[in-house]
Design a protein that fits this description.
This protein is an alpha/beta fold. Helices cover 41% and strands 16% of the residues. It contains 13 helices and eight strands.
């Protein structure tokens, strides 16, 4: 049962997250508590990352998403319950965070921001982390690029069926998502989206079948724009957990960071979770 009432505030932060101290020092936990996390897209991936981070002790969030929860979100989205269908995703995830830590500070925007608005919000709110998890790959790629150019660590992950990836870009990274995708770096958002979603590009993503284990009939209909990308909770939550782990490592400054051009390559159906260096075009054309 999910509870968010005044009694939660009776429990001190140190008690709620006391099990962390088997891994984190007090200063590590302070860094986690103080870190500001902006999440653009709080559906399957973004919402799950937010809740994992909240349970780790992160306490400052800015959540951005225009959508409401729908019945088809039930198979994977952490905030989807029968009693939350029809509610704004940002509000549902906010309440989940506050149910974990009532002292958390959570700001929300239920809208799609223009890329210029994203830039201005990053400059104004000054996050330590930007997580880009919209359903629009081109938009997320541009958000990641903006954040990194502004000196902010940015990360994005994409689960697809039984496979996926997580890639992170440190402040002022010399790499861009477009480069790792093997796509031109000088395209506008609209041009990039059209290129990613064109029929020829979709046809090239047969790795959705070979590694993601999509049913061929579903892939063919998705290729024609008749189906959405397919995702399942086990793989999505695994991808979100790896994303959250990379964020934690960055904030506390411990562990080996996996940053572009390296990324997490996740194929649990084949028994593979590994780090790979992606050559140009490999992600879409393999």
């Amino acid at each position: 049962m999910r509870i968010n009432d005044s009694s939660v505030s009776e429990y001190p932060y140190e008690l709620l997250f006391s099990r962390n101290f088997g891994v984190f020092s007090e200063r590590d936990q302070e860094r986690i508590c103080e870190a500001r996390v902006m999440i653009v897209g709080v559906g399957g991936m973004g919402g799950t990352v937010a809740i994992i981070l909240a349970r780790t002790g992160f306490s400052h969030f800015f959540l951005i998403d225009p959508d409401v929860i729908e019945p088809t979100n039930m198979n994977r989205q952490i905030g989807c319950f029968t009693d939350t269908i029809g509610k704004p995703k940002v509000e549902v995830v906010k309440q989940e965070i506050l149910g974990i830590n009532s002292r958390a500070q959570v700001e929300v925007l239920q809208k799609t921001l223009t890329l210029d608005e994203v830039k201005q919000l990053i400059l104004h709110w000054r996050p330590a982390i930007v997580v880009a998890e919209t359903g629009d790959v081109a938009y997320s790629a541009k958000v990641v690029r903006i954040a990194s150019q502004l000196g902010v660590y940015a990360i994005t992950g994409m689960p697809s069926g039984f496979c996926g990836y997580v890639m992170a870009f440190p402040p002022h990274s010399k790499y861009t998502p477009e480069a790792l995708f093997g796509l031109p770096e000088n395209l506008s958002y609209e041009e990039l989206r059209n290129l990613i979603e064109c029929w020829e590009n979709r046809c090239g993503r047969r790795w959705y079948i070979t590694r993601g284990k999509w049913r061929v009939s579903w892939w063919k209909e998705w290729r024609e724009g008749k189906k959405s990308i397919t995702q399942i909770a086990p793989n999505l939550w695994l991808t979100a957990s790896i994303t959250a782990s990379e964020i934690v490592k960055y904030i506390i400054g411990k562990g080996k960071l996996i940053i572009a051009p390296y990324m997490w390559y996740i194929v649990p159906a084949d028994g593979k979770i590994e780090v790979r260096k992606y050559a140009e075009g490999r992600l879409f054309n393999k």
